[in-house]
Amino acid sequence: MKIKICGLTRMADIEAVNAVRPDYIGFVFAKSRRQVNPRQAKALAEALLPSIRRVGVFVDERIETVLEIAEMEMIDVIQLHGRESAAYVVSLKRQTGLPVVKAVRVDQTVDMKERLRCYEAAGVDAFLFDNGPGGTGERFEWKQIPQTGLPYFLAGGICPDNVKAVMQLPKAPYALDVSSGVETDGVKDAVKIKQLVELVHRL
Questions:
Q1: Alpha carbon distance 22, 3 (integer Å)
Q2: How many domains are there within the chain?
Q3: What pLDDT is attached to residue 114?
Q4: 138-166 burial code (b ≥16 CB/10 A, e <16)
Q5: Which residues 6+ apart lie within 8 Å of 27 measured at CB?
Q6: How far, in whole angstroms, is CA 112 from its chain's centroid?
Q7: Which residue spans within the chain are E strands per DSSP?
């Protein structure tokens, strides 16, 4: 199982992840307390070990803005966390050639299942299942995770205490996506990052 540490904003965060080498890190370009602008993300990305894949997180962003950031070669994966349409996904993949992860709020409605089918048809490479709009740090009922043939990232309240329980799911996630779970007082904590990454990589 792989792990993504999301919401990096400081050079100290880069140093922390470089020391333990998670599989992915995330730069949040959407409105958030963890938001970074392209200039900041570029500097952070240049200091990151090449083996760690960089994910750009966007929420209902103008496609032109996403394309501009992709052209700056600071991200390897695009994560969409808003209400982006299937047509948006198709256009983005065609113009960037980058993998696209679509975040979906788990609510077990018929509409959710239909949305999954639409995004699958549009060519998304993976889903991210979360509780609510994302970044809440709150866990949802994992038994509600929908069936999909695609790999998925699991977010929402992930911490060292429940990682082993994740492995017992009928279909384990491709990766865990963690942000607040490795923070102390709203700031990334190098000790927590080390503890969680090493735990996941041992499983």
A1: 6
A2: 1
A3: 87
A4: ebbebeebeebeeebbbbbbbbeeebeeb
A5: 8, 36, 41, 44, 45, 54, 55, 56, 57, 74, 75
A6: 19
A7: 2-6, 24-28, 53-58, 77-80, 100-105, 126-130, 152-155, 175-178, 183-184, 187-188
What tokens does 143 get?
A: 């038994």
Q: Which domain holds residue 88?
A: 2-202
Sign of CA dihedral 73, 89, 21, 190: positive
pTM as predicted? 0.94
> What contacts 81, CB < 8 A, 6 or more positions away?
30, 57, 58, 59, 103, 128, 133, 134
Contact, 149 vs 120, CB < 8 A? yes
pLDDT digits (tens, 9 = 90+) for 90-132: 999 999 999 999 999 887 565 778 889 999 999 999 999 987 6
Residue type, 67: L
Q: For residue 69, which phi and psi values (nearest 5 degrees)?
A: -70, -40
- Provide the CATH number for the domain around residue 66: 3.20.20.70
Q: What is the pLDDT of residue 39?
A: 97
3-state secondary structure of 202: helix
